[in-house]
Specification:
alpha+beta, about 140 residues, 6 helices, Rossmann fold, four-stranded mixed sheet, single chain, 2 domains
Length: about 140
């Protein structure tokens, strides 16, 4: 639910409102296939860990590196990143996780045999930055 709330906030600030509107309509078209769960994310991942028919999008607060940007943005920003990476590596379904590009994050991904890909993104100030995509298999990604 938090991710969707962030998307709406982005829609208000975005110069390309038509793009955001199109994306929100696209989400609306598949809403019956999406589930947003408010609660303990790690517990939810473990509860569904054996489901090969599940896809997990994980967008945790970026607090694993020295940058700690997530600690400024979120009230509930303290998470056990080691446990998150361990749990993500054990999920039977596909995983797509986003993180800031930092040595600490890359080390966690490597420790749990997760692959990483660097992608460009724009922050809320429209500055181009990079972030990491992390998963079991990102061969589908065209960068």
């Amino acid at each position: 639910m938090l991710y969707f709330a962030r998307s709406i906030l982005f829609a208000v600030r975005c110069r390309e409102k038509s793009t955001v509107a199109r994306r929100i309509r696209a989400i609306g078209e598949i809403r019956d296939r999406l589930t947003f769960i408010e609660g303990d994310g790690l517990a939810t991942l473990r509860q569904h860990s054996d489901r090969v028919d599940r896809v997990f999008f994980i967008d945790p607060p970026y607090t694993a590196s020295a940058k700690r940007a997530g600690s400024r943005l979120y009230t509930y920003h303290q998470i056990d990143h080691e446990d998150l990476f361990r749990t993500s590596s054990e999920l039977m379904g596909d995983v797509l996780m986003t993180y800031d590009d930092a040595d600490e994050v890359r080390a966690l991904a490597a420790r749990y045999n997760l692959v990483t890909r660097l992608v460009a993104m724009n922050n809320t100030h429209h500055a181009t930055m990079t972030e990491l995509l992390i998963g079991h298999d990102l061969s589908w990604l065209i960068v």
